[in-house]
From TrEMBL:
PANTHER family: 2-HYDROXYACID OXIDASE 1, S -2-HYDROXY-ACID OXIDASE-RELATED. Signal peptide: none annotated. Its EC number is 1.1.2.3. Gene3D superfamilies: Aldolase class I. It comes from Cellulomonas humilata. This is L-lactate dehydrogenase (Cytochrome).
Amino acid sequence: MTDRQIPSWSELKPLMRPKPLVWNGTERRLADALTIADLRTVARKRTPRSVFDYTDGAAEAEISLRRARHLFRELEFQPSILHDVSHVDPTTDMIGTPSALPFAFAPTGFTRMMNHEGERAVVRVAQRRGIPYALSTMGTTSIEDVAAAGPEARKWFQLYVWKDRSAGEDLMARAKAAGYEALMLTVDVPVAGARLRDARNGFSIPPALTVKTVVDAATHPAWWMNLLTTEPLTFASLSSWSGTVADLLDKLFDPTMTIADLEWIRASWDGPLIIKGIQTVADARRVTDAGADAVVLSNHGGRQLDRAPVPLRLLPDVAAAVGDRTQVWVDTGIMSGADVVAALALGADATLVGRAYLYGLMAGGERGVDRAVQILEREIRRTMALLGVSTVKELGPQHVRLP
C-alpha cells in the first residue's frame, strides 16, 4: 500500500509557474501560433471571407495547389548523423548578394486588402530580417512609398507586361530611380486564371458594400474599421479599378508577349532580371539563353492553370539543365521551414514564400509577418541540424527522397 502525504507549500511552489498573462490580444494570438498553419487559422477568423479566400484560394478545382502541398508532405528526409551542427547558418546567395534566410517575400497583389498596414509592413520586416522583398505591379502601396518604408531593404520590383508598353517602361524607370535592386518579370499570366472562390464571393477591388459584405462586416468589425479609416485602397501602378481581379488582369495584361520581348525589357532595365513562372525544362533553357539571372519555378501558387506541373517535382531536372548558368528558385506550396530545406536539397538556390507571410499579415499586421519569419527560420534551422548540415551549401539530393 502506498503511503501518502499532503505536500507542503515549499514542495508545491517550484511547480507553480503560471503562464504570463498577455493582455494584448494580437500578441497573445501570435505567441500561440507555432506554425504557418496556426497563423492561417487566426487569419481566417480575423479577415472577411472574400479577402481570406482571395489569398487562400487557387484556380478552378485547386488541384495544382493541393498537388504541390501533397508532394511536400509526402517527401522523405534522409538525415545524416554525427556531424557538428552546433552552429547552423541558413544564409544563401540570391543574385550575388547574401540573404540572411534562404527565401524572399514573393510579390503579392492587393496586399493592403489583407491588412491596412500592407506592403509597408512587409518591407519593414524584410529590412529587419535581412531578406529580399518583391513589390507587385498590382501592389497597393506605391513604388516610392515602399522604398521610403524600407530604405535599407533589398527591394525587387515585379512586372507584368501591359498592353500599354509605355506604362511598363514608366514603372521600370520609377523602380530604378527608387533604388530597386532587381526586376522580376512574371510570365505565366497571359490571361487570368479562373479563380472560382473570388467569383463565388463576388470579390472586387475595393470591396463593394453589398448586403453580403455588410453582414460580413458585423463579424469582422476591426478589419472594416481599418479599411474605412485609413488611406483609400488604391493601386500602386494605376489610378483606380472597380471590377473583379480577373477582369482587371484581362484588361491590362498583354497576351501577345513572346521571348523576343525580353529585349524590350533589357532596353529599359540594366540590373538583374528574374523570370518567374517557369514550368518546363525547355522554357527554363529558353529564358536562361536570353540572359535571365534567376528563374523561378512556379505555377503562380496554383492560381493560373489548374493541373499545371508541380514546381518541386520539376526542380531537379531544371537544376541539372541550367543550374550552372543561372540561379534556380522555386515557390508554390511552401508552408514550413522544412519545405524550404527540402527545396534547397533538391537543387534550388533559394525559395519564395507568399501565402505564408500573408497569413501572418492577416493575423497581426507587421507583427504577424515577423512571426511568420520567426516560425520559418526556427523550422529551417532545426531541420538543417537534424539532417546533419550546418550550411545551405551542404544540402543535396542525398537528404531528400521524393515519392
